[in-house]
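Review form for a predicted model. The reviewer records the input and the model, then writes brief findings.
Reviewer: anonymous (R2)
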Amino acid sequence: SDLGYVPPREDFAYFLNLANSAAQETGGGAGAQIGQDGRKFTSSKHLNDLIGFNREEGCMQMQESDADSESWVCYIDTEDASLVIDAGGTYGGPWVLREQAGKFQKLTVFVKGDVIIRNSSGYSSDAAAIAVDVGNFLSLVVLGNMDIEPNVGLAMPNPYSGATLSSQTGQCWEGHSATVAGYSRPSNVATQNSAAGVTEGIFIVDGNLDIKSRESGVNCAAETDKRYIHQGSMVVWGHAEMKRDFSNRERGCVDDAFGIYNNRVPAETFIYRPDLVVNIPSWMRRNTVYMYQE
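Model under review:
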């Protein structure tokens, strides 16, 4: 194949420079910088005003062509630690972005460091760590790695719930020589397929993405990996590892009823959100034509 134009790698520095250029062109002046030389912009809002969680970083308002929207850029320097976003609310989070005072919010957060997304509420909690209401926009640009811990996701329903095992011989589930009286395969898989995301937005990761799996401590009769669902887009410039697995055999479980889900439901799901593309902030847009020829 022949590419008429090869687009550049659009990493953390690319988007930061794009934001800085836009800031200078739209009233920030020649010295307008985001997160450089120790300077951080403060404006009429802090990050906690936008996402509903206590983060004191100042956010700079950018010029926005959409009259019904406000556009913000924030910068977080983790100072060699990690930014934790917690669906359970214990360590930092969840982040929720929604309309404010009749204006849709367009938020871009630059993170100098690693990001850890977790759910401190445990396996039974399906809480979202990052939620973006339709009409709003969130991009998370990370200079570092992103880890998504095992408790982030949707708990899978127990295949044995309400079932009674008889002594008759038959093959009901893989690895089981038994008949399940009055039991049918899970009917709530359709609900799982249409579920909301536990993370939402456009994520750009300069390092590696690791969607972690439960390795031990599983209640074989009641638990397995949670299903991870992201609504939006992910760009990873390093390695992306997706480790979720509904089978418990590698976790030392002889009874592997949950393994049937591997044939019916994806353990990781990425759902395209066209509204996020439509609502990209003005400063992030560009008119470029790519030509592809085979």
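Findings: Helices lie at 12-28, 47-51, 189-193, 274-278.
Further findings: Residues 1-6, 36-42, 162-193 have pLDDT under 50 and may be disordered.
Recommendation: see findings above.
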